[in-house]
């Protein structure tokens, strides 16, 4: 007699594998931690195989779990595609989403994947630019939804999380020790003025070594140890290194990640906003074994 796998349990299993813990997976799925744990237990019992290694501080996949993960992803994609194509025919078209380049990863790819599964006939036009540019375009009605990095939040926005701003330089770099401190920034970077004011308040002389419209130019300059830069923690490229300055540079504070969208009556917009909220919630939730 054929035996059937529980797709709900498989979805919880994949969420735990993707987020690294039961707490984050529960938040992503809008379930309690105990419900997710129970689904994982039932899945292991139905397969008569251990899928998760709980011996360490966190959760890791066993060999059987790694093998199941590949199958589970394919099953869920097919399930979501079938459900989306047969139930979401009324929603076709395009929604525009603007996101600053430094907060695209790791959340936005997950959001796009979930949205595509829920609305296969809809397309997300992703625009990456600076917060000031995105706000201008949003106010003109040229974009449906934006994320911003700001020190406050506008009247029609909501704050999803706050992320610390950090000093960055080349791996093993020494340019941060020189004075005047050499800075590299894009023309419209929202952190630029704040950092300059912090340096002035600390009595540290500085100069703009490079300014550009291109983030790639900034990355090349900083990775060559010709200047320093600041970004939100977790957004830095691999060829950057956080500067362990030991108090030689001023401490920088948190900045808000804010969400703005206008058409709250549109279910497509509401769902996309919900996927974004879920994604940033998983960044905040502590991992749990």
UniProtKB/TrEMBL annotation:
<dbReference type="InterPro" id="IPR050176">
    <property type="entry name" value="LTTR"/>
</dbReference>
<keyword id="KW-0805">Transcription regulation</keyword>
<keyword id="KW-0804">Transcription</keyword>
<protein>
    <submittedName>
        <fullName>Transcriptional regulator, LysR family</fullName>
    </submittedName>
</protein>
<dbReference type="GO" id="GO:0003677">
    <property type="term" value="F:DNA binding"/>
</dbReference>
<feature type="domain" description="HTH lysR-type">
    <location>
        <begin position="5"/>
        <end position="62"/>
    </location>
</feature>
<comment type="similarity">
    <text>Belongs to the LysR transcriptional regulatory family.</text>
</comment>
<dbReference type="InterPro" id="IPR000847">
    <property type="entry name" value="LysR_HTH_N"/>
</dbReference>
<dbReference type="Pfam" id="PF00126">
    <property type="entry name" value="HTH_1"/>
</dbReference>
<dbReference type="InterPro" id="IPR036390">
    <property type="entry name" value="WH_DNA-bd_sf"/>
</dbReference>
<keyword id="KW-0238">DNA-binding</keyword>
<dbReference type="InterPro" id="IPR005119">
    <property type="entry name" value="LysR_subst-bd"/>
</dbReference>
<dbReference type="Pfam" id="PF03466">
    <property type="entry name" value="LysR_substrate"/>
</dbReference>
<dbReference type="GO" id="GO:0003700">
    <property type="term" value="F:DNA-binding transcription factor activity"/>
</dbReference>
<dbReference type="InterPro" id="IPR036388">
    <property type="entry name" value="WH-like_DNA-bd_sf"/>
</dbReference>
